Structure formats: C-alpha cells, structure tokens
C-alpha cells in the first residue's frame, strides 16, 4: 500500500495547476450538491405546509442521495470527490491528503455551500433557507452522537470505495455507493437532527438564513465521525503492506 504522507509545510502544491483545478472542482461540486439539497427542502415546503411527513422525508433523502452521487462523480477525477469537510478530514488523518490541500478543500467546500445557498435564496424569490436544527425532544448530546455515527458510515464508505489506493475497479461505483449511504442516513437521522453529515452543507443555509441554533452540532459531530472513520479504516482495517500477488493492482493516485 502506498505510504501515508503528512505534509505540514507550505509547498509548491498550493499553486500547482492540478491543485487549483482540484480546489475549483470541490467548490463547484459542493455548490451543485447544496443547491439541490437545500432546494429540495424549500421546494417541498412550497408544495405542502408540513414537510415533516414520511413522503417528504423520502423525497429529501432521494434528492440528497442523487445530488451527492453526482457531485462526487463530477469531482472524482480532479479532487477525489470529497464534497464534505468531514471526508477531507478523514483523508487527512489517514495520511492520504496533505494538510495544505485539506485546508484549501475546506475553504472551497464552505464557499461553494454559501454560493449555492445564495443562489437558492435568489432563485426562490427570497425564501429563507431552512438549514438544520435538532428536533424538539432530542438532546444535543444525542444529536452529536447521531451525527458521529451517520458521518462515520458515510466517510468509511467513501474511504473504502474512493480513497483507498487499493480500491481497484470498485472505484467505479464509488459515487453510487456514497450516494446510497447518504440517502439511507437521511432516512435514519432526518427526523432527529436533519442528518447533515457535512459541516459545509450546514454552514451555507445557516449563514444565509441566519439560523444558528444548535449549529455547533453540525461541525462537532461530522468532524469527529469523519476523523474516526479515517483512523479506523487506515490503521485497523487497511493493511500497511500487501504482497503484490495477493491483491489487485494499485489504482492511480488521486491525491
């Protein structure tokens, strides 16, 4: 397995054309995902007053699953298709991306979310973004735990199908796999805390809609879950070195 790398210093990687393209790709992919995700919630609210229904939950879950799968697919060749600061953090603690590139990805993802939410706000004639909030009767500690568990599943799936250099042909279905787990997790966690699993996805609507209640939950939970998934997969599941005759040829590096 290729060696892990933890580059902590400023390098030419910051201005390399490939890095610039990767960062732009993360910005655009995140914007596409957030526009579709937040837009689906506002669209549902436009159609019916009560969006907290079984049908509404399924529709929002499908919208997020499809949008995230597409976002990962279109960014995969350029940046690895993170589209989520928690996934980037998982790759960082696993040594599969440099610190500098991780920071650039985080900036691009957050800005992409804000830009998309502004576009949603303008396109819907000023409808206030809904964002995420912990449901009544659900403790904040429980919401953090929910976000940790949901994000762990999302990042672990991403790590196994997209980030692991030994992924081989399984990388072809990576966007579909992460889209499926995204949709399933929304069905599980949606009624409790909205199931963000993505600090950038939560930040844009919170800023534009100025809804900050419980917002810290959607940073702490996903980042802890993402970091834990990266550590578990990289250091407990993935083998440090495998004889060439016992595994598939290494897939091309994305990072």
- Our measurement of the CA-to-CA distance between the termini, rounded to an integer number of angstroms, reads 14 Å
Spatial extent as radius of gyration: 18 Å
What is the arithmetic mean of pLDDT? Answer: 88
Structural class, by secondary structure, is mainly alpha
| Tally of helical segments | 8
| Strands, count | 0
| Strand percent estimate | under 5%
CATH superfamily: Glycerol uptake facilitator protein
Question: In the CATH hierarchy, what is the class?
Answer: Mainly Alpha
Residue runs with pLDDT of under 50 for 5 or more positions: 241-255
What does this entry look like structurally?
- This protein has 255 residues and is mainly alpha-helical.
- It has a single domain (16-240), classed as Glycerol uptake facilitator protein (Up-down Bundle).
- It has helices at 17-47, 54-79, 85-93, 99-123, 140-163, 174-193, 199-209, 217-237.
- The model is unreliable at 241-255 (pLDDT under 50).
- Keywords: Membrane, Repeat, Transmembrane, Transmembrane helix, Transport, Vacuole.
- It is found in: Vacuole membrane.
């Amino acid at each position: 397995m290729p060696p892990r790398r933890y580059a902590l210093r400023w390098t030419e990687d910051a201005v390399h054309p490939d890095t610039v393209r990767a960062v732009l790709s993360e910005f655009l992919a995140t914007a596409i995902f957030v526009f579709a995700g937040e837009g689906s919630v506002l669209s549902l609210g436009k159609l019916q007053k009560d969006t907290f229904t079984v049908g509404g939950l399924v529709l929002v879950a499908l919208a997020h699953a499809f949008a995230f799968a597409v976002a990962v697919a279109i960014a995969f060749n350029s940046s690895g298709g993170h589209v989520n600061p928690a996934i980037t953090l998982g790759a960082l603690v696993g040594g599969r991306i440099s610190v500098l590139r991780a920071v650039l990805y985080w900036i691009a993802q957050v800005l992409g979310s804000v830009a998309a939410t502004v576009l949603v706000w303008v396109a819907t004639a000023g409808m206030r973004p809904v964002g995420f909030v912990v449901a009544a009767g659900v403790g904040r500690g429980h919401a953090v735990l929910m976000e940790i568990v949901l994000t762990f599943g999302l990042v672990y799936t991403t790590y196994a199908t997209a980030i692991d250099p030994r992924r081989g042909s399984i990388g072809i279905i990576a966007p579909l796999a992460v889209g499926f787990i995204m949709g399933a997790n929304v069905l599980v966690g949606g009624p409790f805390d909205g199931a963000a699993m993505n600090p950038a996805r939560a930040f844009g609507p919170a800023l534009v809609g100025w809804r900050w209640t419980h917002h810290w939950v959607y940073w702490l939970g996903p980042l802890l879950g993402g970091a834990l998934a990266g550590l578990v997969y990289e250091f407990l599941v993935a083998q440090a070195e495998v004889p060439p005759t016992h595994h598939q040829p290494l897939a091309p590096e994305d990072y």
